[in-house]
Write a structure and sequence with these properties.
Chain lengths: 221, 292
Amino acid sequence: MIKFNRVYKVFERDIQALSDISFEVKRGEFVFITGPSGAGKTTILNLLYREDLPTMGAIFVDSLDITHIGTGRLPAYRRGIGFVFQDFKLLFDRPLFENIALPLVVRGENMEYVKKLAQTMIDRIGLTGKESLNPWHLSGGEKQKAAIARALITSPPILLADEPTGNLDDYSSWEIMEMLTEANRAGTTVIIASHNKEIMSKLGHRIIRLDKGKVVSDAMG
Amino acid sequence: MRWAKEIGTNLKRSGFMSLISAGTIAITVFMLGAYYIVQSGVTFLARHIESNVEVTAFLKNNTPQDKTDNIIMETKALAGVAEVRFVTKWDAFQEFIQDPEMKAVMDTFEGNPLPDSIVVRLDTYTREKIERISSFLREKDGVEEVQYGAGEIENLINIVNAVRFIAAAAGIIFIIASMLVVSNIINLTIYARKQDIYIFRMIGADESYIRMPFVAEGVIHGLFGGAAGWAALYGVVTVLIAQIRQETGLDLSVYHIFRPEYFSVRLLLYSVGAGIGLGFTGSLLSQLRMFK
């Protein structure tokens, strides 16, 4: 489903972020990408999400070389990917309900359908009753749950998460991992950039370890 | 309109800046409206002056009637002549004494000191035409003197043209300044919503969803600015017309652009259209800069 083929990424001032990265992720897999800060974890996610382009190499998603997608087709490509950030990236000037419904609203979906589905997602993440609250009034764990609900509301085939538990306590972290595991069980391919050794070892999924922009190991955890 | 909410968010966030943007457009529309009125006025004035340019040939006393008739006939045949009329010394005297001051002057003379004259009206004014016709008349036997106000007319036309030029230059400067202000204010809104724009892109919003609210924001600034500019112009001109009528007795409302149906409806449409155009262009300029 996802294939990195000899991918290099060099930033300004010759900073080598990725060097000769090749790996494949099958449909429905759950993969952790780990490594020290600056190893290239976020760069890989940014390339997959097409926030950035590789300096060299090809990246295939469902046999489509995403390095050649034109800007006009990017929104359609991104609609197939859910993205979760460490800092949640919620819209703080609108309530939780609207944040979660946003991906459906921007697609121009029928409002009745949007309301129904958003409420279902809110119920599923256990935030019923907090629909009208602004994200300021939510805890870190609740914000991340909302971000995951937003990412999953369109049932994307791929979910990318960049340090989703980075700002959370242990209890919230496990709740978040449980949500991501559930999404994976439902068929979503999940790729997570993480530092959290405990979570990675307990879940026992595949771990791609990076160091200085290179894959140093790729094995089940 | 799935992006209607985003327009509301933008306007709420820009708040006071939106007022500045709409205010700038209002001032520009006011200036453009004033320019339009001045331009229409001076054009009307220039046409009026040009269509009333006359050459007067004063005849020697006791010029025989057949000689006078010949001059009139030959003058009528000249190119550029619209009308030739003979004014007897008695007609001229009657016209003079209509004015009390001139009557007082005339009373100092014994009898009528004015000569017979031939008055030539041109179809359109050109310096060449007026000089050619004047020279023709001057060379005729029986003509004492030829008068025309070419110098004064040209001075007046030059002034009118200078007014037009200055008003046009000021209008262009205001248009550019206004578009830049709108553009910069929308730049600030875009900058303030940078994170939101990133999130929208991340969840697959297409560019029209992201950009249309900013275009609409410019258009809304233009709509309100245009209407406010018109209201200010309407107020100022209405007060001025009343003041001029009171001070001089001159009723400007006979002139078409001051008639209510023209001034209130058509000028409102023009003003709102100009405002929207300014807001839209300012917004596009901003997007060219911010969404590279």
